[in-house]
Amino acid sequence: MHPFGRLPSAPDCRVLRPIKPQRLRPGSFHLPVADLTFYQLQTSTVILLMLAFYGGTFLLSTRIGRKNENVDGYMTSSGKVGFGVSAASMTATWIWAASFYAAATSGYKYGISGPIHYGLWGALMILFIYPFGRRFREVAPEAHTLAEIMHARHGRSSQLILAGSNIAGSVISLMANFTAAGALVAMLSPLDFVHGVMIAGIGTLSYTLWSGFRASIMTDVIQVAAMLGAAALIIPLVFFSAGGIDAVAQGWDRLSAEQASMFSKTAFLEQGAPYFVAVLAYAIGNQTIAQRLFAVREDLIKPTFITATISYGATVIGLGMLGVVALMVGIEPSGGDHNNLIPQMASSYLGPVMIGVFFIMVIGSLSSTADSDLSALSSIMMTDIYGKNLARGRVNPATMLWVGRITMIVATTAGLIFASFRIDILSLLVFVGALWGSIVFPVIASFYWKKVNNRAFTTAVLVSLVAFTVARFELLPIVGTYAVVLELFATVGAGVVLGLMTFGFFGKRAGLTVGALAILALAPFTFGFLRDYPVLLSSLNAYGVSTVVCTLLSVRSDEDFDFDLIAKRVRNFDDRDQAGPADDAGAPPVLAREATR
Length: 597
Known about the structure:
mainly alpha, 72% helix, globular, disordered N terminus, transmembrane, Na/Glc_symporter_sf, membrane, sodium transport
C-alpha cells in the first residue's frame, strides 16, 4: 500500500499532498513546510516511462543477441571490451540506486560530512581495485570468476566459499535495487510499492536474459549517459527550488554541531570508517566488479577505473547532499523510511517533466546494477557450480548457457520476494561489505604468496565469519577480556586495510611498513574505545581475524605454488571444449600455445 493511501489522479499528471511539518526549535528558520507538495505522475505516465525504458533496452539487447551464443561472450565478452564501454559499464554498475538512497540517508543522519564519507570512500575503492585487477588478469587472462581462480589455486572448498559469498551478495544487491524501485514508484505515482518492484524485476530480466553480460555492458552505456545527464540537471534544480543559499543559511540552525562539521567524529566512526572498510571488501569480493576486470582489455584497466572513480564520486556526493538539504528544510522521511528521501525531495521540488527525468535516472541506475548482478550470478552458476563441479570437466556449452539463463530467472524471483521486506539500504550495504571483509586478505594473499594453501584460506574465512557475526550482533557482551581481544584484532584489521591499499600501489615493502606502523599508531586509541562502536569493531575484526589465521597457517605450510599453473587450468570454455576434457587437477590438456610459453 502507498504510504499515503491510494491517491486520485489529476488532469495535469500531478497530485498535491502536504508533507507533515517538522516541529521547529525557537528561533530556527521556519520554511513553509506545510505548503510543500508531492508531484505524482499519473499511472499511465509511469507505465509509459517504464515501457519506454525497458522496451528500449530490450530492443538494444536484441541487436547483440545470437541464436548460437558464445559461452565466454555470455560471461565476459571474451575479454575484449574497449575503454568507452568498459568505463561506462564500471561507472553504471557502481552508481546504483542504493548509492543515491544511501548517500542521501547518510547526509540526513550525519549532515554535510555524511555524503562525503559515502561518496569519497566508494570512489577511492574503485581506484583501489585496478592494481589488484591487473594481477588477476596476469595470472588468469581467460578467467570468468574469481572463484574459478581460487579453484585452480586451492581447490573446491575455497572456490565454493567465494562463489557462495558472491551468490548471497548479488541476491542481496538485487533485493536492494528492487526495493529502490518500489520506493520510487510508490512515492512518485499512485501505484504501490510492489508494482514498482515487479516492473523493475521483470524489465531488467527481459533484456539481460538472452545475451547476458554483453547485454549488460551495452545497455550500461545508455544508462550511464542518462544518469549523469539527469544528475547534472536535477541536483541544482532541487537545491534552488528548496531555497538555495538562503535556505542553507537560514536552515543551518537545524544542524547539530556534529552535523555541521566537515570533520564529524560521529559521521566518521558510525558511517565513514565502517563504509570504508565495507567497500574495500566489495572491491575485492564482488563478482560484478571482477567480471568487468576480466572483460576489459588488459591494457585499459587503469584508465577505465580512474574514469569510473571520478564519475562515481562526483555524482554520488552531489546526490547525497540532497539529504542534507532535506535535513535543513525540515523534511521528515515519508513513513519514517529513509529510502524515501530522494524520491520525496524530487517529488517536492521538481515539476512534472523533471520528475520524469528523475524517474528515468533512478530506474537506469538500479537497472544497470541489477543486470550486473544477474550476469554475475549466471557466471558463477555456469562456471563454478556447473563447469567446475557438476560437469566434471566435460562442459556442454548449450547446457551451460541454459544454466545461466535459468539462474537469472530464479535470482530475479528471489530478489522480488526479498524486496518485500523493505530493509534499510544503508544498513544492508555496510553489513554485507563487512561480511565480505573476511575474504579480502586470503584472496589477495593467494595471488601473491606461494605458501597460502587451501587449509589456510578456508579456515581463515570460516573463523573470521564466526568472529564477525558474534561481534556484529553482540551475541556476547563486549566487555572485559573479550572486548580487549576484539579491539586487538580490530587494530590489526585497521593496519591490514591500510597496508593492503599501500601494497596495491607501492609494493610489498611499503605495504608491510604502513600496515605495521598503522597498528602501532592506532593501538593507543582503539583499546577501550572501539567497543562502543560495534559496527566498526566487527568490520575490522573480519579483516584482522582472517589475516592472522591465514598468515599463521600459511607460514607453517609446505606449499610452494607455481602461479603459471593457474593460466593452464583457467581457460575459455570454447577452447576447453575443442581441446577435450580437463585432467584431474581441473586443468585441460596443455595446448600448443601453452607449450610455447
